[in-house]
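User: Predict structure, ligand AHM.
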Amino acid sequence: MLNPIIASDSSLEHPMPITSTINQLSAPVGVTLQRFIANEQRNYPQAKGDFTQLLADISLAAKIINRDINRAGLISLEGSAGAENIQGEDQQKLDVIANTRFARALRLGGKVCCIISEEEDELVHTGNEQAKYVVAIDPLDGSSNIGVNVSIGTIFSIYRRRTQRGTSPTMEDALQAGSQQLASGYVLYGSSTILVLTTGHGVNAFTYEPSLGEFFLSHAQLRFPDSGKIYSCNEGNFNHFCPRIQAYLESCRDQNFQGRYIGSLVADFHRNLLKGGIYLYPPTQKAPQGKLRLMYECNALALLAEQAGGMASDGTQRILEIEPQKLHQRVPFYIGSPNMVEDVLRHLSN
Ligand code: AHM
Ligand code: MG
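Assistant: Predicted complex:
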């Protein structure tokens, strides 16, 4: 056995015995995202690796965007791109860059036949007509936080195409209910960068190790706490909410819940997933369908929520059951710990 030699750095308040450092070094190398997906693929002997390749393409684009975000202030990537998207929102330079990065990764990867993107008015055809997957994506969510060093994210959903391979994809491939998702996830560019993923067998999170350029499994089988004390809502809209939502928010205050609202959906969702809480974006007088988009914001998070034991509703039905009518459709959104979502639904049905 090694003598417990104490590290000699006098600046360490509690010097670390070298044996413990050596033990850490000999611990097994963590599970990379790539290895995790490859292991999952073994459960499907008929799988040809296309899905694995697609997830690798998404994680590569996320790494590149992560680098862009970290350098944004240094290489003039902050600020408006000088254009609006189809929803009349001011596009930020990083919105446009992230959209381009993902489109390129998915096109060159060859596994995706079409893309629904927050930043594109129409369905994007990749030209990969043999490809069997469809991706819906919000390349950079939380745009208003881009220039102020607050967390932002990427949200994605993966579907199997419905039309024949070898033909041009159609709206039939794009407009699928969330229950048809094969996988969904998000990347949160926060104090660390984390990719949270479900392929329909629970929710796992992978933290990015920048010096190695790899995502490592850091949170296995995440579960929403049944309840919590955090509510996330833009209460600046309070006067424009219906009386039932106003009563619900008042009940949150009466119970001394903590109000926590970052204004980046992915970051608010992630915190609530870990700590227990609810995120809500109800309809307002100005936006009777709420603000958030079904195809590339709500569906992906709804699948993750349900896979983690949480709930996601538009106030009347499960988000995953909504049959989409258009690419940029908006829906009211209530998502989080099951008891808290049930409580808001009770208020809505009173
Ligand atoms: P974006 O896709 O343009 O960034 O909009 C979506 C964002 C969510 O991340 C966030 O929760 C919400 O919009 C914030 O909206 P508001 O500023 O109205 O509170
Ligand atoms: Mg968005």
